[in-house]
Amino acid sequence: MDREEAERLARRFAPAVYRLAYARTGHRADAEDVMQEVFLRLMRAAPDFRDDEHAKAWLLRVAANCAGDLFRSAWRRRARPLEEAQGLTQPGQEMSGVLEAVMTLPSNCRIPLHLFYYEGYFVAEIARLLGKSEYVIRTRLHRGRGMLRRGLEGDEEHV
Q1: Which pLDDT value is given to residue 135?
Q2: SS3 sequence, 110-123?
Q3: What total number of domains does the chain contain?
Q4: What domain range is 6 assigned to?
Q5: Same-domain status, 52 and 106
Q6: What pTM did the predictor assign?
Q7: Which regions in the chain score pLDDT beneath 70?
């Protein structure tokens, strides 16, 4: 893979990689670190992709793994996270109520919901990306939707 191809993939898929990294980490700086690591690994590995969908799947899989590595690091276990008001939105925009509710979900439900609704992946594709069975992914989607529904209904009662 040459530099121009890597740059093209970075321009095309950086937003999707960032969104997944943010959905997994919940912090803008961590998501940016994960995104940088993903594209460094792309340059080092220089994989041969069949097409752009194969490239996107590879990048998202690496992003999910890098975000997981971040949580397992010794530094992360000792560090206290800073609270952030921004995330998947552009700077200066407010997060929608749905997005805020999604970000409060546990990551094991948040990631499949993100890949399903925001990235348009099917259950089988999500299972391959995350290295889980389709049953596990369907269960996490179902649980995540339920938690999201209960959270959003609770907000409506307080308005």
Answers
A1: 95
A2: HHHHHHHHHCCCCH
A3: 2
A4: 1-81
A5: no
A6: 0.63
A7: 71-96, 155-159
